[in-house]
Amino acid sequence: MNFIVCNNYEEISKKAAEIIAELVKSKPDCVLGLATGSTPVGTYKELISKNKSGEISFARAVSYNLDEYYPISPDNDQSYRYFMNANLFSHIDIPMENTHLLNGEAEDPDAECRAYDEAIKNAGGIDIQILGIGRNGHIAFNEPDKELIAPTHKTGLTEDTIDANSRFFASADLVPRYALTMGMGSIFAAKKIILLANGASKAQAIGELRSDKITTSNPSTLLKLHPDVTIICDKEAYGE
Ligand code: PGA
């Protein structure tokens, strides 16, 4: 694992966008693994500006997002589909049909999850997976637990995550209690992983990531087993 410690959020965003831009330039038909949450928003802004200036084009790129609430309509302004359209897809030249999110309205969520893993495999696998990290160490909706699940699956949200995400909803009661999420195996199949973290609220989770231990009580620590992971974080998240 490689740590890049930045002075501030802007530097994190620029660094992450540079790495993604290099991929898009060298492999225009790349498969991007994307994440929601507040952390990657700055990276998406940088990518939008690189796209608008003509430095990079997403015209042949394909994307798969990590997760989606369940149940939720894509038109709900709290859905991750809505978030991705608003924060990235509507501002760049990626064809909308190349962008993929799990369907939060799927009648058969298990079939939806199986088909999603299959689609990623058929697309050639994810070239770069962007990850945020929960303050409890979750990646996507793989929450701390005795066991973690490898394939994409339906899962319940922990109280901590409901609490953290309630800031976007009118009240905590409105946060969906379930999500469809790429599993640890689906994430690990990515060729390269970039995890972004900023702020002191992530320091404990990142501290465990910096230690030698691997534990399902902090799912991010499993990333130590992946051959190509870069953590881009600020000093606060790094614990300095
Ligand atoms: P955040 O969420 O970027 O909004 O902090 C990250 C996560 O929960 O994965």
Explain what the structure shows.
A seven-stranded parallel sheet has the order 1-10-9-6-2-3-5. Strands 4-8-7 form a three-stranded antiparallel sheet. α1 (9-26) packs across α2. It has a single domain (2-238), classed as Rossmann fold (3-Layer(aba) Sandwich). It has 240 residues and is of the alpha/beta class. Helices cover 32% and strands 18% of the residues. It binds 2-phosphoglycolic acid.
Record the SSE blueprint.
Blueprint: E1 2-6, H1 9-26, E2 31-34, H2 41-52, E3 62-65, E4 67-70, H3 80-87, E5 99-100, H4 109-122, E6 128-131, E7 153-156, H5 159-165, E8 178-181, H6 184-188, E9 192-197, H7 203-210, E10 229-234, H8 235-238
Parallel strand pairs: 1-10, 2-3, 2-6, 3-5, 6-9, 9-10
Antiparallel strand pairs: 4-8, 7-8
Helix pairs in contact: 1-2
2-phosphoglycolic acid is lined by residues 37-39, 132-134.
Second CATH tier, the architecture? 3-Layer(aba) Sandwich
Instruction: Name the strands of the widest sheet in spatial order.
Output: 1-10-9-6-2-3-5
User: How many DSSP E strands?
Assistant: 10
Domains, number: 1
The low-pLDDT segments are none
Largest sheet: 7 strands, parallel
Percentage of helical residues? 25-40%
What structural category do the secondary elements indicate?
alpha/beta
Tell me the distance between the termini.
18 Å
Cα-atom radius of gyration: 17 Å
Strand content: 15-25%
